[in-house]
Design brief:
Layout (H helix, E strand, L loop, with lengths): L12 H19 L13 H26 L14 H15 L11 H27 L8 H10 L2 H19 L1
Helix pairs in contact: 1-2, 2-4, 3-4, 4-5, 4-6
């Protein structure tokens, strides 16, 4: 693994703490999503529980985004933003290598790994923004209508996108361990 000789085996403590918080709250929010359907009822404990867990996930996500701007250099977004042809070429090279059953040998925040992390952050950001808006805007005991109904349907895309991302992410971690 000559390309990874200078890459530290472990992420810094801040990155690990933010990852753990986002993973725990994100999984809990995803796992309690089915409970939020009671928002239409006057007794809406499931919606409230799911909402507060989602707020917790949003806090960790916000901290991760801030850390990506002002945190240690390896955790910053400049490693993959802006998207350039050279960075996309690394992603294509990594995918081509995987098709030949070869794992990519590059820094953890370059190439396909950076793309997967970006997609994960985008999925969780989308779920967080739509979820916070719904939590603050839905009137408990009333069915969502119009724009709020559309936003609720968009938010529910997380039911599929989050486990899909987690399967790819967990699979990549297992392959690299």
């Amino acid at each position: 693994m000559s390309g990874l000789q200078n890459v530290p085996d472990r992420l810094d403590a801040g990155t690990r703490a933010l990852h753990l918080g986002l993973a725990c709250f994100g999984l809990l929010a995803w796992g309690t999503g089915w409970m939020a359907e009671d928002y239409k009822e006057l007794n809406h404990a499931g919606f409230t529980l799911h909402g507060w867990i989602g707020i917790g996930a949003s806090v960790f996500l916000g901290l991760r985004l801030l850390y990506g701007i002002v945190g240690p250099r390896p955790a910053r977004f400049w490693n993959w933003l802006p998207v350039t042809m050279a960075r996309l070429r690394l992603v294509r090279e990594d995918i081509a290598g995987l098709l030949r059953l070869q794992l990519p040998e590059r820094d953890p925040r370059r190439g396909l790994a950076a793309a997967v992390e970006s997609i994960g952050l985008a999925i969780f950001l989308f779920a967080a923004v739509t979820g916070v808006v719904l939590f603050l805007s839905l009137e408990p005991g009333a069915k969502a209508r119009g724009t709020m109904h559309f936003l609720k349907e968009l938010h529910e895309a997380g039911e599929v996108l989050i486990p899909l991302f987690l399967a790819v992410h967990a699979g990549a971690v297992l392959l690299h361990s």
